[in-house]
Write a structure and sequence with these properties.
It is a single chain. This protein has one domain. The protein contains nine helices and four strands. The protein has helices at about 25-35, 45-60, 75-110, 130-150, 185-195, 205-215, 225-240, 255-280, 285-305; strands spanning about 70, 155-165, 165-180, 180-185. It has a four-stranded antiparallel β-sheet. It is globular. The model is unreliable at about 1-10 (pLDDT under 50).
């Protein structure tokens, strides 16, 4: 039987922040956990680990009622540590996949390939029509990378759905490894009471707010360009949503805006992969090698469009 411990959250307290707060200390903790229970950290066990964590959260009341803060002191802490590693690896893997997809599309329609080495199905389409597809996907790649780095630092995003009277309510939580152990916080309360941030409405805005708050409060949290991320989110809004209320596709035409935002996402993914390796160890998954190969070939893409490759957004991989 798992005991529930509800406590009022004290405003702006370091007790609710992820712990440890540096990659080196996280590495020591995770190494100790893995040495104790190596099987739950293996890639093949990730589904079992996820199901076990979900089962424990369900026993705590997830899916049945709205929770504010719950301490998971009766749950094996190693299990949730392993879960945070699996979540981090999965999200950065997906970030790489999304980045790869948009880069390949832009490469495919480059002047030397489009209609020469590649025969399009729709011959009348042009590369200028791509922005409404590639900008949103590029943004979601950035968000996956942000969710990944928060997970490896012990701040895991949890989605819950409560059904009542034929209606469904979606609630977001943060599963956080604190100095007192793993705790579950309602996201709005965590932003306001722990990070001292007035929570915005919307999942995406809150993810960016979390990154801002953790970066300001955790000594070892990597520096992410939050302002550029917000700019990319606004570009996503224009190309994904605002176009639905427009009488012209001109605002989402062209390819230059893609190259404007691409360095941010490349730099963020590179930073997150390096951080995961510092916090845990090089992943046995293939995303590191795939990303390195993609990065090494990016100068070719810039050259195909007569653009200068931005060396300041270099990869650390």
């Amino acid at each position: 039987m798992i005991n529930l411990h509800y406590t009022e959250v004290v405003k702006v307290t370091r007790l609710g922040l992820p712990y440890p707060d540096s990659p080196e200390e996280i590495n020591l903790l995770l190494s100790k956990r893995e040495k104790h229970k190596p099987h739950i950290f293996s890639v093949g066990e990730r589904y079992h680990v996820e199901n076990e964590v979900r089962r424990h959260l369900s026993n705590l009341g997830l899916g049945k009622k709205v929770l504010k803060k719950v301490t998971l002191d009766s749950v094996d802490q190693s299990l949730i540590d392993a879960y945070s590693v699996h979540r981090a690896n999965t999200q950065i893997n997906e970030a790489c996949n999304k980045l790869w997809a948009v880069v390949e599309i832009v490469n495919l329609v480059s002047p030397k390939i489009w209609k020469t080495e590649y025969s399009p199905i729709g011959e009348r389409f042009e590369r200028n029509y791509l922005l409404g597809t590639i900008i949103p996907t590029l943004y979601y790649s950035q968000v996956s990378a942000l969710v990944s780095v928060m997970s490896i630092f012990g701040c895991v995003s949890i989605k819950d759905t409560i059904s009542k009277n034929k209606s469904r309510k979606i609630i977001m939580y943060n599963l956080v490894r604190t100095k007192e152990g793993w705790q579950l916080f309602k996201r709005e309360h965590y932003l306001k009471d722990i990070l001292g941030i007035d929570p915005s409405k919307g999942w995406h805005r809150q993810v960016i707010q979390l990154v801002e708050g953790l970066s300001a409060n955790l000594q070892g949290f990597p520096k992410i360009d939050v302002q550029a991320t917000k700019e990319l989110r606004r570009a996503r809004n224009r190309t994904h949503y605002e176009i639905l209320a427009s009488v012209s596709t001109k605002p989402v035409m062209g390819i230059d805006n893609f190259f404007h935002h691409l360095p941010l996402v490349v730099s963020t993914i590179s930073t997150v992969i390096t951080t995961i390796e510092k916090c845990y160890k090089p992943s046995k998954l293939s995303y590191t090698k795939r990303f390195k190969n993609l990065y090494q070939n990016l100068p070719k893409l810039y050259k195909a469009y007569d653009k200068k490759f931005p060396t300041k957004s270099h990869s650390n991989i």
